[in-house]
Amino acid sequence: MNDNRTRPDPQLYDLIVVGASFAGLIAARAAAHRDLRVAVLDAKTEPGARVRTTGLLVKEAIEECDIPSALTRKIPGARLYAPNGQNIDLFAPGYYFLATDTAAIMRWLAREAARAGADLFFGARFEEATLADDLIHIHGHNLKARYLLGADGAKSRVAKCFALGRNSEFLIGMESEYEETPTVDPDFLHCFIDSRLAPGYLGWVVPGVNMTQVGLAVSDSPFGAPRKLDFDAFLKRIDPSFALWNCEVKAKRSGPIPCGGLVSPIASRRVLLTGDAAGLVSPLTAGGIRLAFQYGRRAGAAISEYLQDGGADPGALMALEYPKFALKKWMRRAWSAAPPNALINAALFTPPMRALAQWIYFQKRGSRPSPLSANVEGPFRRFV
User: What is the pLDDT of residue 8?
Assistant: First the structure.
């Protein structure tokens, strides 16, 4: 391991990561394990502060990064609600989602990065940097780096500073955490499709870790017109099923979710973007944590190989490896058009739409009938 005491310049790092995000901390750990001297800068006062995500993981995410089970809760299925209140249950053999204590996971990831040897600087906002003599000079912090990785979120300051691609299409989301309530079936993600309340996306109720998470997100229309997010109307819609009016609100959050796909360019000399900063978020589902784990780790490894062994330029390499989301970008535009609720009510329970919903939630992982379904109507299982 590198020893700061043997270095002639203690302010010089091999890699500085901006953003103690999922992608940033995974990248820092990967690079530090490969014996790079790594620093992480983040404006937050501590890891896990100001969480802005539901923190829902697909099963593949923990195949990229083993998360302690005590910080998660398995959810085996998804229940889709049509605007008229009918619903459909979706499962896949051996598959599950994971609700998480997101703040606790961020603290755990920070400890893992520090254990690998990374220096973590919280309360350290990135404002400006310049490249000179193949070193990145971080203004205001008296730090230098041989490489800079921007993992600083949807509105990346690193991207702005180095004239890299920036996210321009967003969902606007809002979420409240309630005390855990028995009115929410813990075996399902509860997803509400309604073009009046959630045009371009959906509303959700998630049986979380010692809490219930309730959220709503909307997209702008494909014609650029802003849309209103009416969270109170959504709560009124779901109240007959979940009776959340009598539950304590523990936390609230809101913010933009990038949905335009990969930005371009993702890199310049000695600088690379990853995670939300790079647009590594599914344009269709807005899921990005698995991608943050996968490509944060790859970015850390690629930078290590470049600096230590003369490997391929990380920017060129990641430009080939990062997903382009071509199909999902097309589907995002179609869904942002917000088909009328009457059409959703008529189509959701048809075989083609059920197959599409199964693909969106589980890709090619198959399906099985719900073990909780006792009612059978025609060829479908459990419409209430």
Answer: 60
